[in-house]
Amino acid sequence: ISELEKIDSSSIDMAFCDPPYYLQLSKKLYRPDQSAVSGVDDNWDKFSSYEEYDNFSKKWLLHIKRVLKSDATVWIIGTYHNIYRLGYLLQNMNFWILNDLIWRKTNPMPNFKGTRFTNAHENLIWASKSKKSKYTFNYQTMKYLNNNKQMRSDWLINVCGGRERLKDKNNDKVHNAQKPEELLERIVLSSTKVSDIVLDPFFGTGTTGVVCKKLGRKFIGIERNPYYLNEAKTRILKVKKVQTKNIEKTSYDVQEKRIAFSYLLEKGIIKPGNKLYDAKKIVKATVLQNGSLKFKKNTGSIHKIGAIVQNKHACNGWNFWYIQHKNRLISINEHRTYLREEIKEKE
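and the corresponding structure tokens:
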């Protein structure tokens, strides 16, 4: 709270808040094989009562309201333990709720006791500072990332794992509630512009900072745990900005000539029987005569097969697939760009 007080009023373009959930875990959880479950039992998630939790939430939310610009938005993530309390407070403070979204986990932790449904999702609230706010929503970017279909409010994304998950020297999680970068990428791309300032008052191990640095946004992170903060700094220093011009779309971009993948076959740039690969050349699919791809027993568009091989809800195949030319991989999107330029010259 004391660090939030130092931030100038009306200076922030977007805030992402991942506050304590107040899970109220009373005892250790075990799997059927009696191995312990690594749940969120940290001191930062412990409160004496709902009253204490609500008072804490009111304090930081009032500061979020103060520091946001008039057209800014806030994202809050939580579970059934706390999200409804936070939504109630948001509305009482005259924030304007734009969407409630579901992060549906592809690999959630099971309910080992079998006494309830598996908790397979978390809730997100997206709200503007007021009902009159002219907030940023990059509709075309979201549509582009969703195979040119309107982005829905249920997002199928893996929990944080693999190389992205920070581990200590004992191979234990550095932070029990580390969020996946893909989730933050979607949030940042949907509701900010390049060079906007993003605030994360519960910074943890710095996922928001990592994503903002990649996508050319500025960020402010607040974290009271020095261990987490050190891990966040180390992680962020390794990050390099990525080129987003092929991701971030405007209304003007959408007016570009639509090119079907099959047109690349008509022009002889790609031929039936050619192999397409992912960027790391781990996945391989075969191009069919009609412009579809075949991967194992699956047949479909470049987008559908791209989603299947990644176990995702959707995929932009133009950005996912590559074709080998001599000794290097070339994105099929480069061929599409070439054809667009050729058509423009003729027009």
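(Above: one complete record from the training split.) The CA atoms of residues 15 and 64 lie 7 Å apart.
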